[in-house]
Amino acid sequence: MALLERLRELLPQLPPSEARVAEVLLRQPHAFMRTPVAEIAREAGTSQPTVLRFCRTMGASGLQDFKLKLAAALQLGGGGGVHPTVAGDDSLPVLAHKVVEASVRALNSVGTSLDLGVVEQVVDRLAAARRVDFVGVGQSALVAQDAKLKFFRFGLVCEAHADPSMQAMSASTLGPGDLLVLISASGRSPELFDAIAIARAGGAAVVSIGAPGSPVDALADHVLHALPVDDPDTHLPMLGRLQHLLIVDLLAVALAQRQGEPGRERLARYKQVLARRRRRG
After folding, report:
1. Measured between alpha carbons, how far is 212 from 124 in angstroms, rounded to an integer?
2. 171: which strand partners?
């Protein structure tokens, strides 16, 4: 946890008011990520501008940026290389505890950092969409497929593509009123940029679900992400995938609620067909 180690080294050199903010952080770093600036200031016995000044002292542009850096430091503090929080010599009980706790923190961070205003805008787009394409590369393609399986039950015409050629060809058939939803742990896969350019050229809107500050964010109409919990360069986006699945679930439930009785009737028909097929088996 290089960030926390650096903070401990800097602590004696900080002004007293900023040092109190640092002490609040060091006592409960995980709670610090979920605490609003006013409460941090109150607990440290200082002002909100001082909290922001402390964040800038630590090399961040503000509190949210500092929380992103802190989240990465906390989640990448392991060393096993197999999971962001697991060390190579952990026993199975310790390993199990770490994996479960890291997963719970990853899911909780969605609730504290997701912009619900943007969620509402995306639900508006989904509710009005003629067609929706979900695209992802690698493990994110599994989330895209999960999204398709969820949303078609609500009457949406939707596709999910993992193959870059299919992503591009399908994007070429999108037009005004359609939606391209990108899911990516890094937001840097070259294939995604082709799909974005093609979809936008046809007049479709673009939603990005993935890493904060990624290159695709600047090209999307709507951006949804939580605090980062994985190193995008490890190619093991375990916790990030949980977050993306949860964001998809949130959008699906919000859309179902928006549809009201017609949506409930569609789900009822879906469940009846599924029940009949199960009885045949």
Report:
1. 22
2. none
C-beta neighbour count of 250 within 10 angstroms: 18
SS3 assignment, position 222: strand
- Within 10 Å of residue 271's Cβ, how many Cβ atoms? 11
Residue 154: both structure tokens together: 């609500």
216 by DSSP, 3-state: which? Answer: helix
Backbone angles phi and psi of 123, in degrees to 5: -60, -40
The helix/strand/coil state of 179 is strand
Q: Is the dihedral of CA 162, 167, 169, 174 positive or negative?
A: positive
Nearest CA among 69, 68, 85, 103 for reference residue 245: 103
Output DSSP code: residue 231: -
Handedness of CA 40, 42, 46, 52 (dihedral sign): positive
Label residue 122 exposed, middle or buried (CB < 10 Å: 0-12, 13-18, 19+).
buried
- pLDDT tens, per residue, the chain with 281 residues: 467 878 888 888 899 999 999 999 988 887 887 788 999 999 999 999 999 999 998 888 888 888 877 876 775 554 445 666 677 777 888 888 878 887 887 888 788 778 899 999 999 999 999 999 999 988 899 999 999 999 998 889 999 999 999 999 999 999 999 999 999 888 888 889 999 999 999 999 999 998 777 788 889 999 998 766 665 555 556 888 899 999 999 999 999 999 888 888 888 888 888 888 887 75
Please measure the distance between the N-terminal and C-terminal CA atoms of the chain and give it in whole angstroms.
53
pTM: 0.71
